[in-house]
């Protein structure tokens, strides 16, 4: 017994990581199908020791009916194919921005609002990578002290912009400094713009503003982001300064509150992207209590895993635990209470 699962965009930076994370997870998969564009026809990926052929994505395939489809092929592909799959009864977990702000579609970080998955079928949106790691570092503080302002500057890895971006970065490291994916040279440089501007705010910044409010279920949280691309292959970092409505009792209480977050690891020392690339945790260091209402922290996580693939597979796992009869090997967690 197991689930029929598909990955759309399987040859991309996130898609490949989805296959890896799924392989290592406890999710029982009876059949895995991989989809990409014609460009990838003939390629294979390994899943649990078996070579799986990459298929060209078609509407017919989406109508077949899967238990779960994980999408990471960009918003246009999601807009066209995800509704077809959902119509056929598949639960779609979509890593693109296409449906995140649609009110009826849950935007899920399982540790925070996983209860939204109970009884839900259709499209589930996976949040933006920078937002996921920030809200995981902050959600317990919000529960306890009510966040009302968040000032954040990001230091985002090139892999967040996809496989082509990594190739461009590597080409620049080898000496060819022309650019096509990024708006400037990224090797040996930093670029304070991710996505197009709308009303002076970049697309990536709008995502952090809007998605944070939706995930934390608070329209009153004001987010002031500056999102920056840096020459790091994997691992987004964030400098966060946040203000609370209620006074924070003490530095110790703040530290304990942040540490009580699921999948959050605290560091007394500094923590950097190369140290965390490849793991599934949000790493928090440099906690400072500036005054009773204002604190600062440094947050680092693997953007391809925590910020995308791992969150998607955690959604799949929790959704199946809440809604199917299949029992996992270690079903120890009290998931219903989240
Ligand atoms: P392909 O490798 O065949 O181009 P990334 O985010 O790393 O750039 O990856 C994007 C993923 O989405 C890749 O797997 C890519 O496949 C896939 N993709 C892009 N456009 C389409 C499309 N029109 N149909 C199916 N898959 C697509």
Automatic annotation (TrEMBL):
SUPFAM superfamilies: Glyceraldehyde-3-phosphate dehydrogenase-like, C-terminal domain, NAD(P)-binding Rossmann-fold domains. GO terms for biological process: amino acid biosynthetic process. GO terms for molecular function: NAD binding; oxidoreductase activity, acting on the aldehyde or oxo group of donors, NAD or NADP as acceptor; protein dimerization activity. The active site is at 129 (acyl-thioester intermediate), 236 (proton acceptor). Signal peptide: none annotated. Coiled coil: none annotated. Residues 4-120 form the Semialdehyde dehydrogenase NAD-binding domain. Belongs to the aspartate-semialdehyde dehydrogenase family. This is Aspartate-semialdehyde dehydrogenase.
């Amino acid at each position: 017994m197991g689930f029929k699962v598909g990955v759309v965009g399987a040859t991309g930076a996130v898609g490949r990581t989805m296959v890896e994370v799924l392989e290592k997870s406890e999710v029982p998969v009876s059949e895995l199908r991989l989809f990409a564009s014609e460009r990838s026809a003939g390629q294979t990926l390994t899943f649990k020791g078996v070579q799986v052929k990459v298929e060209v994505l078609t509407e017919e395939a989406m109508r077949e009916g899967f238990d779960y489809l994980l999408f990471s092929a960009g918003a246009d592909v999601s807009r066209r194919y995800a509704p077809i799959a959902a119509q056929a009864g598949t639960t779609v977990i979509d890593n693109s921005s296409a449906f995140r702000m649609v009110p009826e579609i849950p935007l899920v970080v399982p540790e925070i609002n996983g209860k939204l998955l109970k009884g839900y079928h259709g499209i589930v949106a996976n949040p933006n990578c920078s937002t996921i790691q920030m809200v995981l570092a902050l959600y317990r503080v919000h529960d306890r002290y009510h966040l009302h302002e968040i000032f954040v500057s990001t230091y985002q890895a090139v892999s967040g912009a996809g496989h082509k971006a990594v190739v461009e970065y590597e080409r620049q490291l080898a000496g060819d400094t022309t650019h096509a994916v990024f708006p400037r040279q990224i090797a040996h440089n930093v670029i304070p713009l991710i996505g197009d501007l709308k009303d002076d705010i970049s697309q990536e910044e709008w995502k952090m503003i809007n998605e944070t409010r939706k995930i934390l279920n608070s329209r009153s949280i004001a987010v002031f982001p500056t999102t920056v691309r840096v020459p790091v292959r994997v691992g987004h970092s964030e400098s966060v300064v946040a203000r609370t409505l209620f006074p924070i009792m003490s530095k110790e209480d703040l530290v304990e509150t942040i540490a009580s977050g699921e999948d959050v690891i605290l560091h007394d020392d500094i923590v950097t992207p190369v140290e965390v690339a490849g793991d599934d945790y949000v790493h928090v260091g440099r906690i400072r209590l500036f005054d009773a209402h204002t604190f600062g922290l440094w947050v680092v996580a693997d953007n391809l895993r925590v910020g995308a693939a791992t969150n998607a597979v955690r959604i799949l796992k929790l959704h199946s635990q809440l809604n199917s009869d299949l029992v996992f090997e270690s079903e120890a967690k009290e998931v219903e209470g989240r």
